[in-house]
Amino acid sequence: MNKLALELYDLLQIAAPSGKEERVVRYIKPRMEQILERVFLDRYGNLLGERTYKTGQGPTILLSAHMDSVAGIEPGRKVIRDQDIYYASKGILGADDRAGMAIVLAVIRNLARSSFNGKVKVAFTREEEIGRKGSQALDQAWLGDVELAIVVDRRGNRDIVTSYADVQPFCHPSVGQFFEEAGRLCGMPDWKAVRGGISDACTFASYGINSVNLSAGFQYEHTWDEFVSITSCKETVQLITTALDIAGKSGVRVQMNVP
What we know:
The protein is an alpha/beta fold. It has helices at residues 2-12, 22-35, 95-111, 133-136, 173-185, 200-206, 230-250, and strands at 38-41, 47-53, 60-66, 79-82, 85-88, 118-125, 148-154, 159-164, 168-169, 192-196, 210-215, 218-219, 227-229. It has one domain (2-250): 3-Layer(aba) Sandwich (Aminopeptidase). The chain is built from 7 helices and 13 strands. β4 and β5 (85-88) form a beta hairpin. The longest helix has 21 residues, at 230-250.
């Protein structure tokens, strides 16, 4: 997991507000190419990838985080580590959603050593912070075989967001329960299904894909008080890896309809 902390630190160094994600792409694309079988940019500039694990007979899972941050990264600022925490010397940190990206990278590395049998698609999207423009521009044909979308873009730790407030459910209730059980099985029984805010999970759920948005370890996003916990990032990696490991062993298929 030291690799996660190092990649998160590198990502936090990059200023890339909405519409200017190119530097993030240059950093992350070669790392994806070391792990995945296919990596490409779509017409909108979203960075996408795919890999089949083992025989590929299990579910197709989408892992997603966004590449942009809100404006406010101060020139000349430093990213400081204080034991488990990263924070910025001034201005916002930008862990929303660089933490999600680092978590997804760690997950796809871990899956090669797990029992997961299926296919993973990765979507690092553009311009989430200004209206989810990147996720809405994704080719729905590419998403056509996705049975579950796991977005990593929630503040705090141990939240499984299964709806946008009371407005939009993201998934069948059993999906949230499945992730809660995965948390219990890996020694974190306080992972809980909750309501949350707007994220790319709104987009995927609108396409009829069961979706969740998981905590990425950051707090006070978009403010000068923002920080991210490395331990919380690791816990989310563990949850996702455990959930997909269960799915791989049991042949679980996500066939429920989004309410």
